[in-house]
Structures are given as C-alpha cells and as structure tokens.
Amino acid sequence: MHKSVQDIINMKKEKKKISVITSYDYSLASLCDKAGIDVLLVGDSAGMVMLGYENTLNVSMEQMCMFTEAVSRARKNSLLVSDLPFMSYQASIEDAINNSGRLIKAGADAVKLEGGSIMAETIRAIVDIGIPVMGHIGFQPQTTTLSQGYKVQGKTKDTAMKLIEDAKELEDAGVFSIALEMVSHEVAEIISQTVSVPIIGIGSGVGCDGQVLVIQDLLGMYEKIKPKFAKRYMNLSEDIIKSLEDYKNDVISGKFPAEEHWFSMEEEELKKLREQIGG
Ligand SMILES: Nc1nc(=O)c2c([nH]1)NC[C@@H]1CN(c3ccc(C(=O)N[C@@H](CCC(=O)O)C(=O)O)cc3)CN21
Ligand SMILES: CC(C)C(=O)C(=O)O
C-alpha cells in the first residue's frame, strides 16, 4: 500500500523530514517512487518543463489529468498529489469540487491549489466531500501576471504577518499540508513551528518540514530558468546532448547499429531467397 495523507501528517509529528519531487511522466515517476520519495507532485510546472509554455497559466485540466494518469501508473509507494491548474477552481466552488474530482479519478490522492485566506472556503468545501487538499502560499506562480514576476515573499513584518495568518487559516480550513514557495527562511521557520500540518518549502530554507523541487531542475535538464533555490544534483542536459551527438556520429560512420543490435535469418533460407531473386 502506498503512503497516505495521514502518513505525511505523522512524519511532522515524528520530526521526519518530507521529500517531495514533481513528476509528470511514467518513466521518471517510476524512478522517483523507487528512490523512496515521499510525495510525487504532478505540478502545473508541467506547463513549463513538459509543454514549453512561458508560465503555468496555460495548463488545462485535460493535460493535468493526462500527466496524473501517467504518474499514477508508475507509483507504488509515494503519495500522489496533483495541482489544480489556473482557472479550474478560482471562479466557483462548484468548479473546484468538480475539477478536484477529476484529478482524483485520474489517480491523485490529493489536490493542491494556490491561495491563502481567500481560498479557505473553497478548501473547506473540497475537504468536506472527502478530498485531501494541499495549500500553496508565498510565491504563487498562477498570479504572476498581477504580482509582476518571481519575487521572494515575506520580507517585511506586515507581509510576514499575512503569510502566518494565511497558513493558520489554511490549517483551519482543513489542509493536510502547505507548499511554501520562495518565502524568507526566517518566516518559513516561524510558520513551520506555528501550524501543525507539514510545511513543504521550495526556496524557503531549511526550517520547513519538507522540501519540494522540480525534477528537471534537480537533474539539470531545464535551462530556461535557474532559480537560486533549485540545487542541481546532475547536469543531465550536457550528458543527453553528448549522447545524442555520439549517436548521430555513429549513424553517419556506420558504427551503429552493430551486430548485437540486429536480427538474422537462417543461412539456408537466405540461400533459397538469393536463388529465387537471382542474386
Ligand atoms: N523548472 C521550474 N522550476 C520551478 O521551481 C518552478 C517552475 N519551473 N515553474 C513554476 C514555478 C515558478 N518558479 C520560479 C520561477 C523562477 C524563479 C526565479 O527566476 N527566481 C530568481 C529570482 C528570485 C528573486 O526575486 O530574487 C532566483 O534567482 O531564484 C523562481 C521560481 C518555481 N516553479
Ligand atoms: C514548485 C511546486 C511547488 C509547484 O507548485 C509546481 O511544480 O507546479
């Protein structure tokens, strides 16, 4: 049986750090699951790293469902959380419930949505029908149009207070966890110590209860943005390009394919064939 929402909540109580990584496809999700990552997040960052959009706003419910289905076929042990994409939950609670249901039917165990106190009522409604919700405060990529860019949140006393209040309101609304994006580490630590549900940080310092990274950033295979917080554990882009250049050169030179890569027919059959075609 894979990890449950309760298992993740318990990890905070047991002071165990929670590892979260984004996943969008079967092959990489299988490896994340095998590596023992606690939570696979089908993030709407898929729009950028998988589909090539400038930001996350264009991602559709259909696309999120497809990514979720692929990841759900791969996961055996991790919890699976999927993002509600832009405009799938903001306009009405009815939208929020219907679209949360679609992600659950696609294989998610829980949904994530962006917003603080303004989303409390929506979150309560989703939780009430039995769908676990992860909140997401601090920097909220779905509102970049308004906030004008990628900026660290909670750098002043007042904005920090608002973040702490938002976290408390989300907890009251029933979230099982909160993603905290690009918040000054001091405020992130205070929030983690203030609420009882796990705080999953991204660019928010080591005081959080867990961490999340976009897998392409961790592997070093997405070159368009390089956030300061995104530690690279590999430079896969370089390795992939080198392999492809080697492949191309092998094709040109005839070094690939070699005998171990091809199939043969029986000598006798080949002889008969040659006779028939007069070779
Ligand atoms: N590949 C990828 N990684 C992510 O972490 C990520 C996405 N995509 N898409 C959705 C959001 C957008 N995120 C982003 C995108 C850019 C920056 C960035 O450019 N940060 C700069 C400036 C920060 C500042 O204001 O000082 C940095 O240096 O970190 C940060 C987070 C995080 N998420
Ligand atoms: C960066 C994480 C938290 C996210 O929301 C995403 O990948 O879409």
UniProtKB/TrEMBL annotation:
Residues reported in the UniProt entry to bind 3-methyl-2-oxobutanoate: D44, S45, D83, K112
Reaction equations catalysed: (6R)-5,10-methylene-5,6,7,8-tetrahydrofolate + 3-methyl-2-oxobutanoate + H2O = 2-dehydropantoate + (6S)-5,6,7,8-tetrahydrofolate
Recorded GO MF terms: 3-methyl-2-oxobutanoate hydroxymethyltransferase activity; magnesium ion binding; methyltransferase activity
A GO cellular component annotation here is: cytoplasm
Q: Does the keyword Methyltransferase apply?
A: yes
Q: Where is the active site?
A: E181
Q: Name one GO biological process term.
A: methylation
Q: What is its EC number?
A: 2.1.2.11
Which cofactor(s) are needed, names only? Mg(2+)
Provide this UniProt record's keywords sorted from A to Z.
Answer: Coenzyme A biosynthesis, Cytoplasm, Magnesium, Metal-binding, Methyltransferase, Transferase
Job description of the protein: Catalyzes the reversible reaction in which hydroxymethyl group from 5,10-methylenetetrahydrofolate is transferred onto alpha-ketoisovalerate to form ketopantoate.
Q: What family is it from?
A: Belongs to the PanB family.
Q: What is said about its interaction partners and assembly? A: Homodecamer; pentamer of dimers.
Provide the protein name. Answer: 3-methyl-2-oxobutanoate hydroxymethyltransferase
- Annotated source species: Nitrosopumilus adriaticus
- Lineage per the UniProt record: Archaea, Nitrososphaerota, Nitrososphaeria, Nitrosopumilales, Nitrosopumilaceae
Identify the gene encoding this protein: panB
